[in-house]
Design brief:
globular, 16 strands, 7-stranded antiparallel β-sheet, alpha+beta
Length: 354
């Protein structure tokens, strides 16, 4: 019997669901491991309301696993939140509430189609880092550090961070601290430097758009492609880590601060002066798992930091309260053999305008 194109699209979508075994019943549905008939029935109702072109966009996003996220897939509001249903079906079966999701930059989100619809493209959303979705515990701990329970971050004081800044200052390829001026006057809101251990590779990448993708090798889309940056005598560790960057990250400037979304298949590690409370003045390294987003720079906290005295631990090195550091795949800090970020094979320094 001839099957319509729409039926084929729906069948391929069910075969691509999270945890699916590739099998379908006569109506195109089967219960995935850990799933429920209620989820499948509700998700089926969402797919039935989508037009054929919307199904094509959704299928491209799902089959590419977000490499080609595509446009918004708008659907009318009816029943359970459509975006929650499709995020559960195709990415995170354990999701419980829309509040665990973050709309990515550029998506119309729940306010799509003048508030009459919602975008249900699961790759237009990420999971939020927070107490309700803690990162896994660190795998390598020194004897003097106890295993921290889930939900806690690894913290270390300014003293363990200061040598990093001093080393960057003394390096022949270090970024001039004069780059911390108001970059908005130059037409960009931040500049990104890519480092391998203590060596900066390539030029500073100026970011003018509200968001930027930073990736290793992405056939579609634009952004900062780290795979095109060449370096003589690249270390074996850097070569291995570069292969793990994959789709990389998205940095976005939003009203409340700067967010990063981990698009890769491996964790990233982040620190900035605003990841802890301003009164504490300690630096925090956060592990961001694949598919998660984290606000890595908070504008309100930054304003408070500007009016606090510079910690005495920074007396021997520069202190930039408007910067973010992100390492790929490899963490650093007191719970790792790498105490400073310059020991990480591949990392980014994001210099923000004031």
């Amino acid at each position: 019997m001839f099957k319509s194109r729409r039926t084929g699209l729906v069948r391929r979508l069910w075969q691509s669901r999270a945890g699916g075994d590739g099998g379908v019943s006569c109506c195109g549905l089967s219960e995935p491991p850990g799933g429920s008939p209620e989820l499948l029935s509700a998700a089926s109702g969402v797919l039935k309301r989508l037009k054929e072109q919307a199904l094509c966009t959704l299928l491209e996003a799902v089959e590419s696993r977000g490499a080609a996220p595509g446009a918004c897939v708008l659907v009318s509001r009816a029943g359970p939140p459509p975006h929650l249903l499709l995020c559960r079906l195709f990415r995170w079966p354990e999701l419980q509430h829309p509040g665990q999701l973050k709309v990515l930059s550029g998506c119309q989100g729940p306010g799509g189609a003048e508030n009459n619809g919602v975008c249900c493209n699961p790759y237009h959303y990420s999971r939020l880092c927070g107490p309700e979705s803690p990162p896994p515990p660190y795998s390598r701990l020194s004897p003097k550090f106890k295993q921290k329970p889930l939900g806690e971050c690894t913290q270390f004081n300014h003293g363990s961070f200061m040598p990093v800044m001093a080393n960057l200052r003394d390096s022949s390829c270090a970024v001039d601290t004069s780059l911390s001026f108001d970059s908005s006057k130059q037409g960009h809101w931040c500049s990104v430097a890519y480092w391998e251990h203590r060596t900066r590779v390539g030029r500073l990448y100026a970011v003018c758009q509200p968001s930027v993708s930073i990736f290793y090798d992405l056939p579609q889309g634009s952004g900062f492609c780290l795979g095109q940056l060449n370096l003589e005598n690249r270390s074996e560790a850097a070569s291995r880590t570069r292969g793990k960057i994959g789709l990389g990250i998205v940095l976005s400037k939003e009203p409340d601060g700067v967010w990063t979304y981990n698009r890769s298949d491996h964790p990233i590690f982040v620190n900035s002066p605003t990841l802890d409370s301003p009164s504490c003045r300690s630096l925090v390294v956060r592990k961001v798992m694949p598919g998660y987003s984290l606000k890595v720079f908070d504008y309100k906290k930054s304003c408070i930091l500007q009016h606090l005295p510079t910690p005495s631990e920074y007396a021997e090195g520069p202190y930039d309260p408007n910067s973010i550091r992100i390492s790929f795949a490899k963490g650093w800090g007191p719970c790792y053999s790498r105490q400073m970020i310059t020991s990480c094979p591949c990392w980014l320094e994001v210099l923000l305008g004031r």
